[in-house]
Amino acid sequence: MQTPSLESAPADPPPGDGRPLDRARSARIARAFLPEHPLGNRHDYFYTLFKLRTDPLYPGVLAALRGSHAPLLDLGCGLGLLAHALHADGQAMAYRGVDIDAAKIARARRSAAATGLADAAFEVVDLARGMPPHRGSVAILDVLQYLSHAAQRELLTTAAAMLTADARLVIRTGLGDRTRRGQTTRVTDRLANLIGWMQERPKCYPTADGLRHTLEDAGLQATFAPLYGRTPFNNWLVVARPRG
């Protein structure tokens, strides 16, 4: 049975306008990833600058978290860009980022220290083996596709149990369908693994119906909105809160 195209499906209103961060703010954040020595490797600087200026992820997530002061657990945080974006946006909640990639965590710690992000902490964690303890909001950005269906359900159920009254579960993920965007997302994620940027290869892309049912079963109410902006990817933003 063919999955219906989500590109023509009605969506909840997106937080933000689908545009990436402005150039000036992107440049200020990216400077945290400059090497200590002028002749050092500038890969992370140019990567973050490009991502911030092209990916609508961060304005969408910032809008979703705005108004909540609950501590934030960022699952699969990579270089910790979200911590810097939150700081630049004036959101001062405590931040804890975890990722399986020890090299990225080390660089995230250096960049946070250089910028003076006092409330940001980073740890190496393999989410396939379990979740760290937490109470507050949870961000799961571009992570779900690297887990099996059963592991996705377990992760979401565990994250839902962490939410406090004013907390949010914020998810950005590619959705599994047969659209051109879906195909582009799968190919790009596979290439990211082949070139070594992502240690894991995609295992299972969730569907909108599957995600909604899992979140509802966990006692959450969720909104779905496309968050691909001008990119060719099938990325969606899901924001869930405790019912009642």
What's the helix-strand series?
HHHEHEHEEHEHHEE
- Uncertain runs are 1-14
- How many strand units? 7
Shape: globular
How is this structure best described in words?
- By secondary structure, this protein is an alpha/beta fold.
- 37% of the residues lie in helices and 16% in strands.
- It contains 8 helices and 7 strands.
- A 7-stranded mixed sheet has the order 3-2-1-4-5-7-6, with helices on both faces.
- β1 (72-75), α4 (81-88) and β2 form a beta-alpha-beta unit.
- α6 (149-162) packs across α8 (208-217).
- The radius of gyration is 17 Å and the shape is globular.
- Residues 1-14 have low confidence and may be disordered.
